[in-house]
Write a structure and sequence with these properties.
Layout lengths: L15 H8 L3 E6 L9 E4 L1 H7 L3 H4 L14 H12 L4 E8 L5 E11 L7 E8 L9 H9 L3 E5 L5 E4 L1 H7 L3 H4 L13 H12 L8 E9 L5 E11 L6 E8 L1 H15 L9 H18 L3 E8 L2 H8 L1 H19 L5 E5 L2 E6 L5 H20 L2 E3 L2 E3 L3 E8 L6 H17 L5 E3 L2 H22 L3 E9 L5 E12 L3 E3 L5 H7 L2 H19 L9 E5 L2 H5 L3 H12 L6 E5 L8 H13 L3 E7 L6 H6 L4 E4 L1 H6 L4 H16 L3 E4 L5 H9 L4 E2 L10 H9 L1
Helix pairs in contact: 11-12, 17-19
Bound molecules: ligand C2E and magnesium ion (2 copies).
The site of one magnesium ion has 5 residues, from strand 23.
Length: 694
């Protein structure tokens, strides 16, 4: 104890307490009781105190104890301390100090008043370092702090930043030097600072109640002023200066982006970015609720590109996707902001129109909307790989303010769309209850068809085909359903249903077999033996990979002369795979069967297709024939088709000849064959035989 100042160690040198202090491993410091600036003066330090603080006795004794604080201590701390000491009691508490090399450390102090002869009162401070909390000294904790992948900020009780790790520096764009000593609100967006300060004060005044805190939906502010979403955790450090808090900060921008993406995908279509069916249904439900409140009508419009499958098949799925995206873009721009445009099926868009007023206004508005949308979607698409023209069909239904449900509305609008499709391309159809009844009727027909096929209720009728002299040279076989209760049903009401259900293959095969059997029987009769009979083949039936084989086996079975058989096809069978269709026609023609292109003049009537198809006959569609010669356009079209057939070396047939006048005109234009009510409707085989005999 030789280097302790003589003047003040009169008692210490010899007292028991002094020797104990020299020996103990606890750090001990004796100061004056002076609490005012510059603070208590150090009178004595023991060796443990020197090694803990990093200073020598000479550097400490005679100095103010405050040299060991890293900053001006909290005044509340001094008030507490003064009260305790003046009442002669010991003070205990935790405090943060700095080592000589600058690293802070935590320690628990106990301050005891001591009376002696030199001074009225001295303070004996025994300090016990709390190793587990010692930041600066503990290399392990230090490493963890700095290596942590989350931002860590140690905030002192006064709200100033004590230290930050590298991740926090990176997150906020400040260096540690720029942050230490600054208020933590520096890292909070401007407008949230005041609130943050209040929160921090409240938090620090309830040390007991403080738990691990956490917060989401918060924002941090970088040095450059930019912001980012953060999730923070608050861990109170009770042993540090009162109310110090370790704040952990995670940048959750990426997580938020992923969450937003998941949310987006749950309600949107990834290809077009439009709302998906699920969101659409939610919004329709909401709209119906809104209509119930307002008593107004709304409308649902469904838009579907025509021949979309053909585009996919002929020009690839990427073109199909491109069309959908382009249409989605045009439709969204046209519908305007705030209006729901959704992709509700593979190639179906829906637009929700709400609050349209009374029913009649709502229908008018929705129809106008659908017409404009049709024009906009029908404008040419210019793609790098070549342009494209699209048409769309649309269905419309009203949304009723009462008793409507989203399922019913979707069902109705779907029926309207199907109706528009049936009517041909580029149509708009508004749902009305008759549609619903016909849909139910179709469902009933579909249900009954398999039994009807087994009971041989599908039979061919024959419509005579005559030459310019009016002689019967052949017939077109037209299917009829002899329904046990409904009587004779025309193909228009069941062939489309059979095509949809797939029963067309079996029905078509049965027709062909019956016709071939008939032609084979007629071959035995002199007057009927040279007739050429045509049979209609639906595109779906024609595309069946087994088609050629099935025709061949029917020819073999019935031993019919293939030169008496003609198959009627339409252009649409070329849309899927033109090369395959052409190869099939060629194979059947090699067997001796001839081919007619039916309904020419409607559809595409593409010259390119016509040139490629190996055909024998061309049938002018009855819609033109029936209009002529009164309608000059129809007449011009008919003349052109006859000339075209002649140029291509095809026999031309006019169907739908109803008047002598039309027949005369057609003969003058050098059409070669004629079919129509003027000569005969389609009739049963026996009746046909009698008619030919006459
Ligand atoms: P299509 O092949 O164009 O047949 C001509 C249609 O016009 C027939 O109607 C015929 O009865 C009708 N028709 C004939 N002459 C006249 C006339 O002077 N005026 C008017 N207004 N109509 C006339 P149908 O028999 O109702 O057949 C309708 C369509 O059903 C046919 O059109 C054909 O596409 C299809 N179809 C008929 N039979 C079959 C079949 O066995 N298989 C397949 N897949 N489709 C068939
Ligand atoms: Mg036909
Ligand atoms: Mg026809």
């Amino acid at each position: 104890m030789t280097d302790v100042p003589r003047s003040q160690l009169a008692t210490w040198e010899h007292c028991l307490l002094g020797s104990a202090a020299e020996a103990t491993t606890d750090a001990v410091v004796v100061t004056t009781a002076e609490l005012n600036a510059p603070g208590p003066e150090i009178i004595y330090v023991n060796p443990a105190f020197c090694s803990m603080t990093g200073y020598s006795r000479d550097e400490l004794v005679g100095q103010s104890i405050r040299m060991l604080y890293d900053q001006k201590p909290d005044p509340a701390f001094f008030q507490d301390l003064r009260k305790t000491i003046q009442s002669g009691r010991s003070y205990r508490g935790a405090t943060l100090k700095h080592h000589k090399d600058g690293t802070p450390y935590l320690c628990e102090v106990s301050i005891t008043p001591v009376h002696d002869k030199v001074a009225d009162c001295m303070r004996l401070v025994s300090i016990q370092r709390r190793v587990e909390d010692a930041w600066g000294q503990d290399r392990y904790l230090e490493t963890v702090f700095h290596a942590a992948p989350v931002g860590l900020i140690l905030v002192r009780g006064d709200g100033r930043i004590d230290r930050v790790n590298e991740t926090a520096e990176e997150l906020f764009g400040y260096s540690a030097g720029e942050l230490v000593g600054r208020e933590v609100e520096l890292l909070v967006p401007d407008e949230a600072r005041a609130h943050h300060r209040d929160y921090r004060t409240a938090y620090s005044h309830q040390p007991r109640a403080r738990q691990m805190g956490a917060g989401r939906d918060l924002e941090g502010q970088r040095k450059d002023g930019s912001r980012f979403p953060v999730e923070i955790g608050l861990a109170p450090l009770e042993t540090v200066e009162r109310a110090a808090v370790l704040v952990s900060v995670i940048d959750i921008a990426e997580r938020k982006r992923q969450e937003a993406e998941i949310e987006f995908l749950a309600f949107n279509d990834p290809l077009t970015g439009l709302a998906n069916r699920r969101l659409c249904m939610d919004r329709i439900t909401e709209a119906i609720e809104g209509l119930t409140d307002s008593g107004q009508f709304g409308a649902l419009v469904v838009i579907d590109p025509d021949r979309f499958q053909a585009l996919n098949d002929t020009r690839g799925h990427s073109r199909g996707d491109q069309l959908l995206c382009d249409m989605a873009g045009r439709l969204t721009a046209f519908a305007g902001p705030g209006r729901l445009v959704a992709r509700v099926g593979a190639d179906e868009f829906a637009v929700l129109l709400d609050d349209l007023g009374q029913a009649s206004d709502a229908i008018r508005y929705a129809e106008r909307f659908a017409q404009q949308a049709r024009d906009i979607l029908g404008a040419p698409y210019s793609w790098k790989q070549g342009g494209y023209y699209a048409t769309v069909s649309s269905g419309i239904t009203l949304l009723h303010p009462e008793d409507d449900t989203v399922e019913d509305a979707l069902k109705r609008v779907d029926l309207a769309l199907q109706d528009a499709k049936r009517e041909g391309r580029n149509r708009i159809s508004v749902f009305d209850p008759v549609l619903q009844r016909s849909a139910e009727e179709r469902a009933r027909i579909e249900h009954q068809m398999p039994a009807a096929l087994a009971n041989e209720e599908f039979v061919p009728y024959y419509q005579p085909c005559v030459d310019a002299a009016g002689r019967c040279v052949g017939a077109e076989a037209l299917i009829r359903w002899q329904h046990p209760t409904h009587g004779l049903i025309s193909p228009g009401s069941f062939i489309p249903v059979a095509e949809e259900s797939g029963l067309i293959h079996a029905i078509g095969e049965s027709m062909l077999r019956q016709v071939c059997e008939q032609v084979a029987r007629w071959a035995l009769d002199e007057s009927l033996s040279r007739l050429e009979v045509s049979v209609n083949v639906s595109p779906k039936q024609f595309r069946d990979p087994d088609f050629v084989h099935s025709v061949k086996s029917i020819l073999d079975e019935t031993r019919v002369n293939p030169h008496q058989l003609c198959l009627e096809v339409t252009e649409s069978l070329l849309f899927d795979d033109a090369d395959e269709a052409i190869a099939r026609i060629a194979a059947l023609r090699r067997m001796g069967i001839s081919f007619a292109l039916d309904d020419f003049g409607t559809g595409y009537s593409s010259m390119a297709y016509l040139k490629r198809l190996p055909l024998d006959l061309l049938k002018i569609d009855q819609s033109f024939v029936r209009e002529m010669p009164a309608d000059s356009d129809a007449t011009a079209i008919v003349e052109t088709i006859i000339a075209l057939a002649d140029n291509l070396g095809l026999t031309c047939i006019a169907e739908g000849v109803e008047t002598e006048e039309a027949w005369r005109f057609l003969r003058e234009a050098e059409c070669q064959r004629f079919q129509g009510y003027l000569f005969s409707p389609a009739i049963p085989a026996e009746q046909f035989e009698r008619q030919v005999a006459r």
